[in-house]
Amino acid sequence: MASSLLQSVEISASQFLDIFHHYDNDGNGFIEGKELQSFIQELREARQQAGLDLTDEMKQLVSEYEKNSEQRIDLVQLVQVLPTEENFLLFFRQQLSSCSHFIQVWRRYDADHSGYIEADELKNFLKDLLLKAKRTCDNKKLDEYTAATLKIFDSNSDGKLCLAEMSRLLPREHNFQMKFEGLKMSKLQFNKIFDLYDQDGSGFMDQLKLDSLLNDLCEKNNKVVDSTDLHRYRSSIIELSDGGKLYRTDLCLLLCHDD
């Protein structure tokens, strides 16, 4: 089925996902190795059978693969290669062009600081992005975009998106979540440290205590940081603040690994 979809002049959001999951055999989020080899071979055959030339983007992928067969592509790279309808994934990523904009949107839809955006909230979120860009979309297509976005980013298949999952919409250079890969700890460790700074049990702390909290987190995690690293961590976390308040749930999503 996937190879026949490659013959299409335009691919829908759901068809795009079918293609990606077909070639991502091990489910690691990348098409690589023999997976990529098969994809390129079948792409060439499908386009030829349909009487279609490879697009410039397809030719570039083939050329890069011929130079380096060890490369791999992810969802965002694939959506730039295939003639995906309206390039829905790229469009949503473009609307979330910076970390600060992303956090503003997150705040609007996670007003209760639960740390999650439910499916219905995600649908409204995508609808608002479309309205902001002055693009029309019927309810059926909006449902398809919502389902596709969940399938792409809902890594644990719980039907909702947490901050870490949602941040994958951001370009890599703006993805604050990736900056904390070396500073992850268990929720138990995190809560013990956070409690020292939240003595009134309010569930949040102010920015003035952030440097001390970060130093404690690094010490507990056996991580040595210089002033540059500390500034980088601090700047990313401050983006999460809500009126000067840093909530436990938000910080936990950034700094804790899955137990």
UniProtKB/TrEMBL annotation:
Residue ranges of domain EF-hand in the record: 11-46, 97-132, 185-220
GO cellular component, one term: dendritic spine
InterPro entries xrefs: Calbindin_Ca-bind, EF-hand-dom_pair, EF_Hand_1_Ca_BS, EF_hand_dom
Alphabetical UniProt keywords: Acetylation, Calcium, Metal-binding, Repeat, Vitamin D
A Pfam match: EF-hand_7
Gene3D superfamilies: EF-hand
GO molecular function: calcium ion binding; vitamin D binding
Coiled coil: none
Statement: the UniProt record of this protein carries the keyword Transit peptide: no
Secretion signal, residue range per the UniProt entry: none
Any one Gene Ontology BP term: regulation of long-term synaptic potentiation
PANTHER family per UniProt: CALBINDIN (PTHR19972)
Protein name: Calbindin
